[in-house]
């Protein structure tokens, strides 16, 4: 086996993880098959336009995974493993505030950040960290027991971490070491056959099913792997037609006639999976847990801070109208709000500074010796440049929480009279020993690099705006 670079390690890890998860959760394989069918049909129907937000090769190979860990130390170790694959922590998500159910986690996503790396393989992993210090969920006694339990387990072996550190430092691994690293990295996310302490698991489950999934077992596992689809509404219909029980809604923006923005997600419901349970008297019985589900996503254009503020405002309007008109489908309400307030074309999104694009000189631009304009809007309008949308590579806390919530068997408990413990991106950066990157800054850098190139090619001395 030849030496593997970081992106090759990333691609191999994603493929092997997908194969493993398909063996553990057969409905996931159905989801991947239906996604591929839908993508092929959309490509036939729409041609090149279907690849506006990524080549069909990228879209078909694309996955995002989700895992959950219990302590900052474990999260720091996860960061080392994904760092070996050229993946960095991007964004801070507080799911405690985004869900009506008890979801006591904060999250980040590990992913490539360079445009070329994303095009090679955009594998990303949404990674949630339990918050035992939040008194709304855990009283002092339970927090103490939980932290002791978490401190006593080892999720990642020293051998795996050493290989990860070598891959990060050298940006590659020789064949034998690469094979060993991939084997250990996939193995650690398999569902463990070790019996679950039934009493301890149920104690945590009364607080939150998510807390039990993280802190009620001595291992971690992949919670879901998510293929990307070009028409999520069609996929939802086809999965339902195949008898797969889907959650009630598609999370995120509605289906509408304008540009796809941000992220739309749905999933099939968490399945009851057999697990060995150890009872208080020490005997092992057969039980079942519902913690893993099959998610699928459709990605749109990345919005700027202004665009995101508008999106959040529109969500609030939809919430208000839906509460006033409970008999009207939420999707119908949302579509009406979107069509009234959100620009209906990519050029309008670009002109109003609501979405991120890269800019490229047109071969057929004016060649009559005229001086090019110095604003992006005029360069676009006069045909000097074309705008290519930047795909949204990140997540939406409300949508993530909605997926979690739709797959929980109970609401859990939350003491709203207590003050929640504060967590933010700076805290998370300190906890894992590396900077949690700002997604807006990453998108802006892509846009600005393209504008600097355009300005240079046109001989403009001023910065384009």
Automatic annotation (TrEMBL):
Its EC number is 1.13.11.93. Signal peptide: none annotated. It holds the Pfam family HGLS. It comes from the Bacteria. Keywords: Dioxygenase, Iron, Oxidoreductase. It is an enzyme of class 1 (oxidoreductase). Its cofactor is Fe(2+). GO terms for molecular function: dioxygenase activity. Gene3D superfamilies: Uncharacterised protein PF07063, DUF1338 (3.10.180.80). InterPro entries: HGLS (IPR009770), YdcJ_bac-like (IPR047869). The keyword Iron applies. Belongs to the 2-oxoadipate dioxygenase/decarboxylase family. This is 2-oxoadipate dioxygenase/decarboxylase. It comes from Streptomyces antioxidans. The lineage of its organism: Bacteria, Bacillati, Actinomycetota, Actinomycetes, Kitasatosporales.
